[in-house]
Amino acid sequence: MKINGITDVFFDLDHTLWDFDKNSALTFEKIFELNNLNINLDDFLSQYVPINLKYWRLYREEKIKKSALRFARLNDAFTAIGYTIDANLIDKLSEDYIEHLTKFNHLFENTFEILDYLSARYNLHIITNGFDEVQHKKMTSSNINCYFKTITNSEMVGVKKPNPIIFNFALQQANTNVKQSIMIGDSYEADILGAKNIGMDAVFFDINNKSVDANVKRIDNLIQLKNYL
After folding, report:
1. Which of 60, 117, 168, 199 has the fewest beta carbons closer than 10 A?
2. CATH number (domain holding residue 214)
3. CATH no. for residue 33?
4. Could you tell me if 125 and 198 lie in one domain?
């Protein structure tokens, strides 16, 4: 069912438009090669992916700093696969990862198609918890920055989704209000509940078929946004 009265559409970036998992895997493949690390990539990623999500949750909840996230997620993943590695090399890998991550630009299926469709009808915006120095590079390298009127990231605001402050900041930047806006994102806690807590409608990009409130609007392919917008 089409949603009436919407003028502004807010997107999350990582895991919603920008295919973080695919680009991250390619980045690790690259930096392991650069640093002559003979590590089975699949084994490493099987540990790293859930560990990374755990630390991002802590970061989102203001329980750890960015520097701790970047070091600990790698250190814990190497420990989990039984690979002994020097702390200085972890620091270098962390820097290499950030440097090379934005050189890969895979997007989710139908990203350009839905952005073309929506940008002709609505003002489009980004709200992201990602790091300022890499988010703009991701959008530029994947050629999607031109679609968005505003980009709000957690570092410029000082808080992270689902904190209502970042949503209200983004709305102010966009010169709009909650009744005319909708949030699209993959994180039920950060994107969907964060938006709903300030009265903004939301659509859950649910590619993993999570068990959530049955009343939540959900899609598993971006093109399905046409059903709502």
Report:
1. 199
2. 3.40.50.1000
3. 1.10.150.240
4. yes
Degrees, nearest 5: CA angle 100-105-107? 145
- The answer to pTM > 0.85 is yes
* pLDDT tens by residue, 49-78: 999 999 999 999 999 999 999 999 999 999
Q: What is the DSSP string of the chain?
A: -PPTT--EEEE--BTTTB-HHHHHHHHHHHHHHHTT----HHHHHHHHHHHHHHHHHHHHTTSS-HHHHHHHHHHHHHHHTT----HHHHHHHHHHHHHHHTT---B-TTHHHHHHHHHTTSEEEEEE-S-HHHHHHHHHHTT-GGG-SEEEEHHHHTS-TTSHHHHHHHHHHHT--GGGEEEEES-IIIIIIHHHTTT-EEEEE-TT-----TTSEEESSGGGGGGT-
**199 φ, ψ (degrees, to nearest 5):** 90, 15
Of the residues 101, 132, 154, which one is the last residue of a structural domain?
A: 101
Residues 77 and 13 in one domain: no
